[in-house]
Amino acid sequence: MPTAHELQPKVELDQLIRVFETLTESTIGELRTIYSADAFFADPFNAVHGIDAIEQVFRHMFATLEQPHFVVTGSVVQGEQTVLLWEFRFRFRSFRRQVDQTVPGASHLRRDARGRITHHQDYWDAAHGLYQKMPLIGAVMRWLRRRVNS
Prior knowledge:
This protein is of the alpha+beta class. It has helices spanning 4-7, 13-21, 51-64, 126-129, 135-148, and strands at residues 35-42, 47-49, 65-78, 81-92, 101-111, 117-123. It is built from 5 helices and 6 strands, in the order ααββαββββαα.
């Protein structure tokens, strides 16, 4: 007899993109429809195992940023591997001057036979994409970048 997990429909690319692009604090539970229970997730700040820990990463994102959301700008699928190109758009919650921010990045996803994500590695430049946009740290990062650029 098939398990409940086996009875779930296969996750297609358009469903995966929809979940990421429409993710809100109240829809974090939908991540369970696209990730395997023991999935691995890593980005410049996190490396976690399991859907509970992955959900916590996204909860933290919503708690610390204003209006965070992803816009998928491209995708490449080859067998069980998928690469999503995206823009992460947000505002810093704690800064007086609210300015829309955009950080480009890519996600390398490995998916199982049911299309669920088993491995998710995000690639984006934290120094340029995030730190340089912060008022105090940003000034230091921009100065350092000027010093090391030829």
